Each structure stands twice: as C-alpha cells, then as structure tokens.
Amino acid sequence: xxxxxxxxxxxxxxxxxxxxxxxxxxxxxxxxxxxxxxxxxxxxxxxxxxxxxxxxxxxxxxxxxxxxxxxxxxxxxxxxxxxxxxxxxxxxxxxxxxxxxxxxxxxxxxxxxxxxxxxxxxxxxxxxxxxxxxxxxxxxxxxxxxxxxxxxxxxxxxxxxxxxxxxxxxxxxxxxxxxxxxxxxxxxxxxxxxxxxxxxxxxxxxxxxxxxxxxxxxxxxxxxxxxxxxxxxxxxxxxxxxxxxxxxxxxxxxxxxxxxxxxxxxxxxxxxxxxxxxxxxxxxxxxxxxxxxxxxxxxxxxxxxxxxxxxxxxxxxxxxxxxxxxxxxxxxxxxxxxxx
Length: 340
Known about the structure:
Belongs to the C/M/P thioester hydrolase family. It is built from 6 helices and 12 strands. A 12-stranded antiparallel β-sheet has the order 1-2-4-5-6-3-9-12-11-10-8-7. The chain starts with 24 loop residues before the first helix and ends in a 16-residue tail after the last strand. It has helices at 25-29, 60-72, 166-175, 181-193, 233-240, 248-252; strands at residues 32-34, 42-45, 80-88, 99-107, 111-120, 123-133, 196-204, 216-223, 261-273, 285-295, 298-307, 311-324. Helix 3 (166-175) runs antiparallel to helix 4 (181-193).
C-alpha cells in the first residue's frame, strides 16, 4: 500500500502531526518522514516548508538542512558530517511536497558519502553531496598525533547583549524615516516567524573609502528555544547558514544597495563543518561574512561560524547571481531572493 494521498496542492504527502511544544521551532520545521513504501533512502518533509513572508519561494536553508537530516539517517552511528556541497537548480514551492532520494555512494570505516536529490513534481530542484567522517577521539588509550591549527575567535566583538534585537533595529529604522509603518509591520511579522533570532554586530571597515573586499559583516544568531535532539544541531546550523548569505554583497558594496539590484539569487552553497560533535545552535554563535570577488553578474561570499567557547564551527562558501536593474527583472517588486 502506498503512502496516504492528500489533495493536490497540499504541502505534505502525509497529514502533518500537531506541532510538538517540547521541541524548538527549528526542530518542528525540519522534521522529516521516511517513505518506506517507496523504498530505502526515500524521505519527505513532515510539515510545510518555510516560506518567508513576502518571498516568492521557500527558504533555501530549509532544503539544505533537510537534505543533511535525511543523509544523517542513512549513515553508521558515530559519524558526523564534515562537508556538504549543494546546488540550487530550480525554485521550490511551499505548496508542493518535497521528496528526498538518498544514494549510498560509499560507506567506509572512516568516511561515508551520500548524494541527495530533492524533488518536486518529479523534477530535481536541489542536489547535494554530503561527506561524513568518524571523528578522532580526543581521549584514547593511544592518542593519535594529528596536525592542528585554527584561526582564533575575533577580538573586539560586542556581546549579543550589547547588540540591538531585530525588533529594536526595525523600530530605529521607523523612527529615522528609513521605512514606513507598513514595512515595519511586515519586517516584524517576518522576524517573529523565524526559528532563529539575530543581532547585528556591525560591519568592520564600513566606510565609503574602504574596498568592498576589506569589509566584514558580523552578527549573532541563536535558535529560539532549546534543541532537544542532538542530531538536529548540524542541520539547524546548515539552515541558518543560508540566511542573507549572498546578501552580504548588498552590505559591503554600495553598487548593490537596495533599489539598485534587479535580481539576486543563490547558485551553490558549500559548508565545511569543524568541531561537529561540539556544535550547539541553541546558544549564541557569531557569524562573520565577507565577499572576496564580484564580476560577470556573479558574486562569491564566505562565512565563518564561531562558538566563543568552542572555536570555529563551520566555514561556508556561496556563489550567487547578482544582477543590477536593467529591464530583465520583470514586473515583480521583490527579486532579491534565494533561488529556492
């Protein structure tokens, strides 16, 4: 017997269960369901995929995170992801179920590789390759000699408590006349629905004469509520890693300010995970992002994610389309979007 069918136009294949109040918002958002009726390694979204208020399609971080979550379901116990390489292929719809197909490329003693295709209506909209490793134990009978080095947590970063909340920032913009009441209400509604809270920590080198490649954007991020499932931390990190990542270009290059960009979307996304066993996303993490290159209607952005107590948790890269207004953007008012 196949999976229970729902009317066309619904966002899930099976009726979603009630939201679990004992789980964080991000855990509920990323919950997945195995479709054993369709074979091994087939999964689907349990709940409707998150579509930001005002966005044309689903948030790309949803698919990145669920792709990692389903891949994790197929690997031997004790292994942790160390890298994932993703490509956005087609826009994703919030009203169509997502079906994830996991291919076991290789399962070795130290490393395992999984390829995942995310499909809607039979078409791949997203693909990723995830590589997992068995971490070298820090305490063993015969400690291994390993090469070790890492950049240090940056100095002179204001604490989360010293940084304004998103709501405070929106009120400030409203008071300064940078936005009107309708935009403020829209932004506050979007912020309230986000499973993460963000606090801007400034832009290093934010002066007109500073080269865009020398500017560094910083912000703090934390999941709303405690994450109860240990296996949810890394997918949750993957989820927020896509939040305004390519939007770094807007913040460091005056040529790409709002009102001048006709279209901005993500093309690919790579995450290298460090200290994976120690990652906890329900405490404040510092996110640094910059853009070393932009040309040919594309831009490259890089990101480092820090836990002040642990050190560097992840290094991310993303390339995106950045097209200035030139008549090709069509009639829609909102083209600063993720491809998903």
